[in-house]
Design goal:
Strand content of chain B: over 45%
Distance between the termini of chain B: 41 Å
Largest sheet of chain B: 6 strands, mixed
Radius of gyration of chain A: 14 Å
Number of strands of chain B: 12
Radius of gyration of chain B: 14 Å
Oligomer: heterodimer
Order of helices and strands of chain A: EEEEEEEEEEE
Number of helices of chain A: 0
Shape of chain A: globular
Helix content of chain B: under 10%
Number of helices of chain B: 0
Shape of chain B: globular
């Protein structure tokens, strides 16, 4: 299927464990993003990537690590999960559309840290 | 920096009622403005957009006009349906390759039959 897929869709983990959330796009969009969605905070940017091997921090990057060895994959790792990282995580890619840039989102991963 | 402020929800309407969700923004330059919709259990989908002042974006009966003088991009629909129940996000994005999007906090709409 074309688009962005995320796995797993649901994950429960314990405090202190390392967790990796996967993101895969079937297009070849250069830019990819990771957001977290929390009640009262909308979407907050964790990390983004302009191309393979080029990544940069967003506004809430502490405790997270990303990599992008291939254009189509953009995994997000929580090095040592904390309860405050319980959230819904969305991956997105971006494409130029006329005069603007549009984002396409994956279905999200609901992560619970106990 | 850039910011987007949406009216707080939740908003509850009866079917066929008129919908307005307010959105105002602060930005440097002339960004594009967007409304995204998120249905339960799904990711965000682009609903409509406008790329310059006085442009009107429209889709599925929803409309929003880019008002530079009031820095607003209010979402409207003349007659809502139960299937419009979702969370709506206003967003802005600079029209540069390196620009990052800024999202509002989202407004939850529930339409009752």
């Amino acid at each position: 299927d074309a688009g962005i897929t995320q796995s797993p869709r649901y994950k429960i983990t314990e405090t202190g464990r390392q967790v990796t959330l996967m993101c895969h796009q079937t297009w070849s969009h250069s830019y990819m993003f990771w957001y977290r969605q929390d009640l009262g905070h909308g979407l907050r940017l964790i990390y983004y990537s302009a191309a393979a091997d080029i990544t940069d921090k967003g506004e809430v990057s502490d405790g997270y690590v990303v990599s992008r060895s291939k254009t189509e994959n953009f995994p997000l790792t929580l090095e040592s999960a904390t309860r405050s990282q319980t959230s819904v995580y969305f991956c997105a890619s971006r494409v130029r559309a006329g005069a603007s840039y549009e984002q396409y989102f994956g279905p999200g991963t609901r992560l619970t840290v106990t | 920096g850039n910011s987007v402020t949406q009216m707080e929800g939740p908003v509850t309407l009866s079917e066929e009622a008129f919908l307005t969700i307010n959105c105002t923004y602060t930005a440097t330059g002339y960004p594009s403005l967007f409304w995204y919709v998120q249905y339960p259990g799904e990711g965000l989908q682009l609903l409509l957009k406008a790329t310059k002042a006085d442009d009107k974006g429209s889709n599925k009966g929803f409309e929003a006009t880019y008002r530079k003088e009031t820095t607003s991009f209010h979402l409207e629909k003349g007659s809502v349906q139960v299937s419009d129940s979702a969370v709506y996000f206003c967003a802005l994005s600079p029209n540069t390759n390196a620009g990052k999007s800024t999202f509002g906090d989202g407004t939850t709409l529930t339409v009752k039959p």
